[in-house]
Amino acid sequence: MSWGFERGRIYNRRADIHGRFNGQQRGGIVTPAEHGVIIIFTGEEGEVHGYSDRWRDDGVFEYFGEGQLGDMVMQKGNRAIAEHAAQGKSILLFKILPKGVEFEDEMICEGYQTRRAPDRAGNMRDAFVFELRPIDNVTTVVDGIPPTTDNLEELRKRAFAAAVATPAKYTSTASVFERSRDVRDYVVARAKGDCEGCQQPAPFLRVNGIPYLEPHHIRRLSDGGPDDPRFVIALCPNCHRRVHSGADGKGYNARLLSTMKAIEVS
User: Which end of the chain, N or C, is more open, meaning fewer C-beta atoms within 10 Å of its C-beta?
Assistant: First the structure.
């Protein structure tokens, strides 16, 4: 469950989404100003405007950006998707059905392509095609990948590079798995074996000898994936559960945000 939405369940767009988050009532990309979420819609009606969204065999969902006529521009909804990791925003994918919208999954943007495709008038233009992966798939894979170096400065450099959302980054060979790993490795190494929440030693070591700490994404409801390291903190399992399940979870998360200002100075 992501942001209270269940995979496969059908919701009413106006009541369940806009009634909760506000945001644009029309269009395929909704960017609520007061919430850390980007809501995107896919469906057959998009094909009328030249959008050909699809699932690939490698688990990637190709999602066409917004812009019905002429070349697409990297602004508004398109920019929001491309920069969601650096901005700490979650992407929620819904499929438009005859009666309602079905929640597909929470997604992470791995990158994007610029592809020649027809616009609403049938004229060929440059279109952005975002490559999205379900966040759970990314987290599961990354958990099994060991660090490639123990040099803290090198890890920090990689982590901050992973959070930068630019076309050059997306056209590089770095995958969302590598970018997610880079953030995780740096945050855990930065903690030097102690929980950055309670300052107590990690409860045990992993099989590879690294202290067991869990990266927590302070600005997002779900953990995992690329993010700005200034907003990711290494927590022991107890502190991590406190954030997500404790009665004072929201307040504790706010205190962790303050703690991070001293840990990771801008």
Answer: C
* Helix/strand number for the chain, H first, E second: 9, 10
Tokens 């990314």, residue?
138
Written as one string, the DSSP assignment of the chain is -BTTBPTT-EE-IIIIIIHHH---SSSSEE--TTSSEEEEEE-GGGGGGT---EE-TTSPEEEE-S-SSSS--SSHHHHHHHTHHHHT-EEEEEEEETTEEEEEEEEEEEEEEEEEEE-TTS-EEEEEEEEEEEHHHHHHHHHTPPPS---HHHHHHHHHHHH---HHHHTSS--HHHHHHHHHHHHHHHHTTB-TTT-PBPSSB-TTS-B--EEEETTSSS--S---GGGEEEE-HHHHHHHHHSTTHHHHHHHHHHHHHHHS--
Query: Residue 172: pLDDT band by 50, 70, 90 thresholds?
Result: very low
> Residue 129 — very low, low, confident or very high, per pLDDT cuts 50/70/90?
very high
Tokens 């990158």 -> residue: 111
Contact yes or no for 190/234 (Cβ under 8 A): yes
Q: pTM of the entire structure?
A: 0.77
